[in-house]
Design a protein that fits this description.
By secondary structure, this protein is an alpha/beta fold. The protein folds into 2 domains: about 1-220, Rossmann fold, CATH 3.40.50; about 235-435, Rossmann fold. It contains 13 helices and 24 strands. Strand 6, helix 6 and strand 7 form a beta-alpha-beta unit.
Length: about 425
């Protein structure tokens, strides 16, 4: 698969829009484009997935490990892979470049294109770009200027070519209509942006006019991707909650489950009953935006309660955990775990975490270590015992989280099972033993 990474010095440079346009125009040249997003983000990935015409995947060293990176590429194989880098190219865990887009491009040996948006500067942009190019050890193969006039672009292009041994591949002019509205996880959810298709088409047309797409295709590198296959199909039925309230899932988790189990989707918002299942999986999302509808769906709430009381297996993350406590903002919810969830006006937890199981649960025995990420503004007040020890990488910060009842587990952290396959195998093997 020919592959390129699109990156930038920092967030808020407009690289998502540039990436959308590049994906659109590579696709217009007849390529089956697969889109990827570095880091743990759920939402940017949705945008680039819509542009490519299929669900995008994540690439994350902390969540997946190197083998997981390669397997994620294999799961979403195509003719051409476009990877959008998260944050700045060198921004990794804590104050390092570990797990940064640069780190991933180095591990996978993928060339990168740097999107640079000059702001209140002229020649000062040149040493900044040169520093990034030099530090990248020749990973950065081209520059695209963004949010700038054609006149400014020509001046900058001349100086880059005079002082830096790198190609300038074009520019995108400033256009306020290409802005993507902000939302509390970083970007408005893709399926909420009714103008998204128009935005992608417009971005593609502008990219076609002012950026050398053919040269980007030439710069990209063929990499070998191998898709792991599972010869054994488990006799397990999995019900995945998926609707406007719950839709934050790593695509890799879905594909791992699809390859090994029989998958069915249900909606806590709109369905009255659970499908027949051996495992319920409730991911993150925005349950706080649908409190009345979730709370009024008493039949679904009772269906989930009865299922758990009967010993059914349930795994919930993030917003899924919120749905399982007694209330969210005083709206009655499932009450699997006692406690009240309330929203705050600031982030409570953000970033990568390491997870240690302090008690046996459906993901493993006490002492098992997992990796994950956490991002939420809500808090849960509960007197229930918490069974996970959470620590921040490269930090002494730690706290407790996670609630377990019978065969139900609810945690705030999001886990990618490509990097935690032992936990998924433990869960599925335990279910298989019980139900068969």
């Amino acid at each position: 698969m020919k592959t390129i990474m699109i990156t930038a010095p920092s967030s808020n440079t407009g690289k998502t829009v540039v990436t959308l346009g590049i994906i659109k125009e590579i696709k217009n040249r007849g390529f089956n484009v697969s889109a990827f997003k570095t880091g743990p983000d759920f939402i940017d990935r949705k945008y680039i997935g819509i542009a490519s015409g299929k669900v995008a995947s994540n690439l994350d060293m902390h969540l997946m490990g190197k083998e997981g990176l390669e397997e994620s590429l294999g799961m979403n194989n195509g003719d051409f892979g476009v990877i959008e880098g998260a944050m700045g190219y060198f921004d990794g865990i804590y104050n390092t470049y570990e797990n940064s887009s640069y780190d991933i491009s180095k591990e996978l040996d993928i060339p990168s294109i740097l999107i640079y948006s000059p702001k209140g500067e002229m020649f000062s942009a040149i040493p900044k770009i040169k520093g990034m190019v030099d530090f990248s050890q020749n990973r950065i193969k081209g520059i695209i200027f963004n949010k700038t006039s054609e006149f400014m672009y020509k001046l900058l292009k001349e100086q880059v070519e005079n002082h830096i041994n790198i190609e300038v591949l074009g520019f995108l002019p400033l256009d306020e209509s290409l802005n993507i509205e902000s939302r509390n996880l970083g970007l408005l959810q893709a399926d909420e942006n009714l103008e998204l298709d128009k935005l992608i088409i417009k971005a593609g047309n502008m990219v076609e006019d002012t950026i050398d797409i053919n040269r980007i295709i030439e710069i990209s590198k063929d990499i070998i991707v191998n898709k792991q296959s599972y010869s054994k199909k488990r006799n397990i039925k999995v019900a995945i909650a998926y609707d406007n309230a719950f839709n934050f899932y790593y695509e890799e988790n879905i594909k791992l489950l699809e390859e090994q189990c029989n998958i069915e989707y249900f909606s806590p918002l709109n369905d009255n009953y659970l499908p027949e299942t051996d495992l319920i999986y409730i991911g993150g999302g925005y349950p706080e935006l649908f409190l009345d509808q979730l709370s009024k769906n008493k039949q679904m709430i009772m269906s989930i309660r009865d299922y758990v009381e009967a010993g059914g297996y349930l795994y919930a993350e993030g917003g899924g955990l919120m749905y399982l406590v007694d209330t969210i903002e005083d709206y009655p919810m499932c009450g699997i775990f006692s406690g009240k969830s309330t929203m705050t006006d600031r982030l409570q937890r953000f970033g990568y975490v390491n997870i240690s199981l302090e008690e046996d649960c459906i993901l493993g025995k006490a002492g098992v270590r997992l990796t994950g990420q956490e991002f939420h503004r809500s808090i849960i007040n509960s007197d229930e015992r918490q069974i996970l020890q959470i620590t921040k990488p490269k930090s002494k910060r730690k706290w407790k989280c996670g609630y377990s009842y019978k065969n139900a587990l609810g945690i705030y952290q999001h886990i990618n099972f490509l990097g935690n396959k032992e936990a998924l195998d433990y869960l599925l093997s335990k279910i298989e033993k019980d139900v068969n």
